[in-house]
DNA sequence: CAGAGGTGTTAAAACGTTTCAGGAGGTGCC
DNA sequence: GGCACCTCCTGAAACGTTTTAACACCTCTG
């Protein structure tokens, strides 16, 4: 049957007052062992489960934090989510995971919902750079940590990875391996990460100061496998092909790689490929993929720690902007063979 | 500043009673347009946000449903989650997504949390077959739908895909293409899906009735890329290799495929590979992967519909066991070339 | 034996909503 | 003018907890 069993039922059963039951639940040490046992007995006998709504209403301290990501299908975010969940559940918080799917409307709806739930705090990768939704949350007194979206806003925490440095790492590596004609397959400029990674790539070329190296940007509408495939097809159709491709994320790179492999283009001899994110599949691709790794779980953990710290002591909390350093993982797809070209 | 603005503040501001504000919020049609506007004005001016805890406490009707999956990193589950979220948010429900990570302890903790939240219902892929956690939820009057875990339990709904049929589809296809020595790379027997898919594979061989075809099972500890790689290495080390590999999921298959491609084994000429789940990466692999597709989003949608229907009218609800049919997607990795072997 | 200082328990007041019985005021009908 | 019937609004009770002040009882101290 249903279970409308409340703390009051437990109290009568154990022949104590409701206050005592509440104490057993929340501060067991203040109640005498004998009564404590009696109450616990009643609880299990009746199958009592605390009603969190009432608890929250009275105590004012919620037990959930919200996490709003751009795309649950993206392994990057699922890893971040895992990190968040780890530290959150250690602190006794539930995580409400929301998927904005890069839609401002969905984001707004989710944010509204989280506000109504009176969550402890919200970790969010905002859809737009204007941060309208984020501002509204803050105005309602909910602490917010920006995820993977660096900012200078003084009244917000943020946790991100230095995308510009990541782009620079990738292209510097390609130049060092001797590649000259590099195409960056990039997402649309409205995506913050895409812009930064491209800037880093430009930095690399500039710093190398070699006049022969050229970097071109090829913009695709979405950061997924299909877009990568189409981009590769376009590159193959050219009369002079690039000798290296740097992709704004691994999904693009896998799409590119597949088309190249199937077209018989040797990777990396004829064309190198570098991705970004180092998702699990990167290492398992037909040609293991060089990629820029981000400390994904750690991003999640750090963000969760920040939001919990802020809500614990809002007064003396100092907003921090954590910027992790990316790391280049070199694999076969971009390693110039030691010997000069084989065959001829 | 914080926002301890309650319905009462709105009421005084709009010079009405709290009851009227509540009516504006929940049944706007019963209040006169003029007052309605006045109240709405006050709401936006004060930045009022409903406190869901209080609402739930009083009304007794929660607005969230729980979803407990084995692995958020697995694309199968993220697609299911997407389906769940779609129909749930249409019905005005939030989705609390929990990751049990195949750990009974984590599952128990999440289930406890969901029970305390008094969620509308729970969709769960149970870690164990004994369904202890599920029973406890039901005892507390929370409706449960089993996800991807077929059952005959008469007091539960379930939504799943016919894994046995899927296994049979895959192996029947391999046999039809002329493959003879088939190895199934499978997960441990405690995983329900692994058992069923293997049974289906056995069915296929039996039905084909061809005495020359052999099916062997190679059990690996986990259903991931690394396990697939190790399995393929073991197969390659043998003196007589199989001519086809059927993997219990796509992650395994991708691992196998990678090792084969790198070792120079031609796929499918020398060895065919078939996966299971048809994740996005399957089509984008070096050799596009034949796989068994499951209607993932539809599983999620159907499950959400069932749990919502059940909680709407628990009395006349009839528990259903929905079993979707899998579909074989044939790609290059298992298509026997029309001509006999090339070369020689 | 009075008072001080524990310890363990209780009763009642909150928390912010929804809901419901009922009241005020207006309109139409006989 | 009395009555019935609307429409719109109000006031208060209830939901299940946590929290706090107060109380009862015991033990120790002087």
UniProtKB/TrEMBL annotation, chains A, B:
Domain HTH lacI-type: from-to ranges: 5-59
GO molecular function: DNA-binding transcription factor activity; transcription cis-regulatory region binding
Alphabetized CDD domains for the sequence: HTH_LacI, PBP1_LacI-like
InterPro entries assigned: HTH_LacI, Lambda_DNA-bd_dom_sf, Peripla_BP/Lac1_sug-bd_dom, Peripla_BP_I
Organism: Saccharothrix coeruleofusca
Listed PROSITE patterns: HTH_LACI_1, HTH_LACI_2
The protein's name in its UniProt record: LacI family transcriptional regulator
Keywords from the UniProt entry: DNA-binding, Transcription, Transcription regulation
């Amino acid at each position: 049957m249903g279970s409308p069993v409340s703390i009051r039922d437990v109290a009568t059963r154990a022949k104590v007052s409701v206050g005592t039951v509440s104490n057993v639940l929340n501060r067991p040490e203040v109640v005498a062992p004998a009564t404590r046992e009696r109450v616990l007995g009643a609880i299990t006998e009746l199958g009592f489960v605390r009603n969190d709504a009432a608890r929250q209403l009275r105590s004012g301290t919620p037990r959930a934090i919200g996490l709003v990501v751009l795309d649950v299908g993206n392994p990057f975010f699922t890893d971040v989510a895992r990190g968040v969940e780890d530290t959150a559940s250690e602190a006794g918080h539930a995580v409400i995971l929301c998927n904005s799917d890069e839609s401002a409307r969905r984001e707004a709806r989710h944010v509204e919902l989280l506000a109504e739930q009176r969550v402890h705090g919200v970790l969010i990768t905002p859809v737009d750079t204007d941060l309208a939704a984020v501002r509204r949350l803050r105005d309602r007194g909910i602490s917010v940590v920006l995820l993977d979206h660096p900012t200078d806003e003084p009244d917000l925490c943020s946790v991100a990875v230095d995308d510009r440095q990541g782009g620079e790492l990738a292209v510097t590596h390609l130049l060092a391996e001797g590649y000259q004609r590099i195409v960056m397959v990039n997402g649309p400029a409205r995506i913050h990460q895409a812009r930064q990674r491209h800037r880093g790539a430009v930095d690399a070329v500039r710093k190398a100061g070699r006049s022969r190296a050229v970097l071109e940007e090829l913009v695709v509408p979405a950061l997924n496998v299909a877009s990568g495939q189409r981009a590769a097809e376009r590159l193959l159709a050219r009369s002079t092909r690039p000798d290296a491709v740097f992709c704004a994320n691994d999904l693009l790179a896998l799409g590119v790689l597949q088309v190249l492999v199937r077209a018989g283009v040797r990777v990396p001899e004829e064309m190198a490929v570098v991705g970004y994110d180092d998702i699990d599949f990167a290492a398992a691709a037909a040609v293991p993929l060089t990629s820029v790794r981000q400390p994904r779980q750690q991003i999640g953990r750090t963000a969760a720690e920040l939001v919990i710290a802020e809500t614990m002591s809002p007064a003396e909390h100092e907003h921090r902007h954590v910027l992790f350093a990316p790391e280049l993982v070199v694999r076969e797809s971009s390693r110039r063979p030691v010997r000069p070209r084989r065959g001829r």
